[in-house]
Amino acid sequence: MPPRHLADLNADERRKAVQELGLPKFRADQIARQYYGRLVADPEQMTDLPAQLRATVADSLFPPLLTEVRHVVCDDGATRKTLWRAGDGTLLESVLMRYPDRNTLCISSQAGCGMACPFCATGQGGLNRNLSTAEIVDQVRAAAAALRDNEVPGGPGRLSNIVFMGMGEPLANYKRVVNAVRRITSASPDGLGISQRSVVVSTVGLAPAIRKLADEGLSVTLAVSLHTPDDELRDTLVPVNNRWSVSEVLDAARYYADRSGRRVSVEYALIRDVNDQPWRADLLGSKLHRALGSRVHVNLIPLNPTPGSEWDASPKPVEREFVRRVEAQGVACTVRDTRGQEIAAACGQLAAEG
After folding, report:
1. Between residues 264 and 342, which one has the greater pLDDT?
2. How far is CA 89 from CA 242, 350, 351, 354, in A?
3. What's the mean pLDDT in 242-260?
4. Average pLDDT, the chain
5. Which residues are part of a known binding site for S-adenosyl-L-methionine?
6. Tell me, what's the pLDDT at 122?
7. Sequence-distant contacts of 16-20: CB under 8 A, at least 24 apart
8. Per UniProt, which keywords does this protein have (predicted)?
9. Residue 48: beta bridge partners?
10. pLDDT tens for residues 153-162?
11. Domains of the chain: residue spans and CATH
């Protein structure tokens, strides 16, 4: 893990850290407003901080976190994927997507992933390590600054939505992810001020952690990567299902919906001849309706195949029939707008290429 960074600290910890440097407490919020409010990560650019203090603050609170390795863009510049290198050489990714009504950043919570889902590029590579709270938050700060400073085609903009759907299983890095959510959603000087309702935290189904998240008092959207409604296939597609079955995951999702008052999103990567059969659409719809009623939405994802993979996306007629059958069970179902296919935007593909 990297050394302590300002974004790792809550307000009390931040003030204590500043006092340990021999500085008055007010400097803590002053520095935090530069980072969270002005999106400045280099103390040398913090003009309201005395010049003689900047190097000390940099050494103590701003260790190098993430360095851009490269950007790749597609969709006429509306999608930009960034490969980052952490201080220890670890590679991770984030993807910024511009839409007419919002600007969404997909962020990583781990370098690699230990969930071993066979159709996922990140899962194929295994887990390198958890990311620190600051490494997660700084992906967001950097994207917000890039949008504001007109570095992304489409003119100056504001980052509006965050999805924890990049590399890693967020709930397997639970404490740091929850801390990062609080930094992302708190107002300056404690955070970046993005609405909790505009944050999505995904999971492959770590049922106890879903219940724990429900008790945090957050109003983020929970997204459950289900990918099939039956345990027999899910044991293979999502190996963690061997620990927590579909019914246990849906029970936990219902608890989250009850506690948060938020609708749960169910992610379903549609894979040709694997999980796209009509009977699976019927079973998915009926199970979700029983478990969650109207408090669920199925997000159908056309598979973005990884190089050399045996998996492929389902044909459009099959996709349309799947949607029809899920909706016939009284469950909302839409197909995700696919972005970034020509730039290897499926999580982990860019890092795998180095």
Report:
1. 264
2. 33, 15, 12, 11
3. 98
4. 94
5. 168-169, 202, 225-227, 304
6. 84
7. 17/60, 17/61, 20/60
8. 4Fe-4S, Cytoplasm, Disulfide bond, Iron, Iron-sulfur, Metal-binding, Methyltransferase, rRNA processing, S-adenosyl-L-methionine, Transferase, tRNA processing
9. none
10. 889 999 999 9
11. 6-61 (1.10.150.530), 204-336 (3.20.20.70)
Contacts (Cβ under 8 Å, ≥6 apart) of 247:
none
93 is catalytic: yes
List residues forming the annotated binding site: 113, 117, 120, 168-169, 202, 225-227, 304
Rounded to whole angstroms, how far apart are CA atoms 351 and 226? Answer: 25
- Euclidean distance between CA atoms 226 and 46, whole angstroms: 45
Spot the catalytic one: 20, 342, 347, 353. Answer: 347
Name the β-bridge partners of 14: none
H or E element: which one contains 235? helix 231-237
Residue with the two structure tokens 């290198």:
85
Strand pairing of 296-302 and 264-270? parallel
Q: Which residues are annotated as a binding site for [4Fe-4S] cluster?
A: 113, 117, 120
- Nearest in space to 66 (alpha carbons), one of 165, 127, 122, 146: 146
Task: Indicate the pLDDT class of residue 75, thresholds 50, 70 and 90.
Answer: confident
Q: How big is the chain, counted in residues?
A: 354
Quick one: tokens of 61?
């609170």
Residues 296, 298: Cα–Cα separation, whole Å:
7
Tell me the C-alpha distance between 190 and 14, whole Å.
10
Which helix (H) or strand (E) segment holds residue 316: the answer is helix 316-328
Of 110, 78, 83, 109, which Cα lies nearest the Cα of 96?
78
Q: Kindly report which listed range (105-109, 248-252, 348-352) carries the lowest average pLDDT score.
A: 348-352
Residue among 20, 68, 93, 333 flagged as catalytic = 93
